[in-house]
Amino acid sequence: MTRVLVLNGPNLGRLGVREPEVYGSATLADLRESAVRWGAEAGLDVEVRQTDDEAELVGWLHEAVDQRAAVVLNPAAFTHYSYALRDAAAQVTTAGLALIEVHLSNPMARESFRRHSVVGPVATGTIAGFGFDSYRLALLALAGQTR
Predict the structure, then answer these.
(1) Residue that wins the pLDDT comparison between 144 and 62
(2) What residues sit in the active site (predicted)?
């Protein structure tokens, strides 16, 4: 069974209370439950994590490489400026592992500073704008790659 780390960056622990008009009313616990279920249905072993700490997120990407795990990554605000995160994400794909960048909202439809991703160019692909379904679609894409 393919192992997948679903990694979430800053402020995603506040899902359900942070700008529900943008991010919805479901919580990180709801996302965790859904992602694990979607993964199991697709034959994936999914673990969901969240941190507000850039260094911890970088460490988790290193762990994915070392443990040969695919990654679904919502870098959140780090998307736009974290070259450390970009370099760690590049290690995942350079190792031949899939890394799918996801976003709940569509960054291209938001403020101009959100329209640039330093992670996107090193990701296997990007899925954005579908709320929690962005994660479901990413997991389905990963499952399709492992067949």
Answers:
(1) 62
(2) 23, 103
For residue 141, what are the contacts with CB-CB under 8 A and spacing of at least 6?
Answer: 98, 100, 125, 127
The CA radius of gyration of the chain, in Å to the nearest whole number, is 14
Binding site members for substrate:
74, 80, 87, 104-105, 114
Specify binding-site residues.
74, 80, 87, 104-105, 114
Q: What is the CATH number of the domain that holds 115?
A: 3.40.50.9100
Give the tens place of pLDDT for each residue, 74-103: 999 999 889 999 999 999 999 999 999 999
Indicate left, alpha or beta for 118 from its phi (over 0: left) and psi (-120 to 50: alpha).
Answer: alpha
* Residues classed as catalytic: 23, 103
Task: Please report, for the chain, how many H helices and E strands are present, in that order.
Answer: 5, 5
Give how many domains the chain has, as a whole number.
1
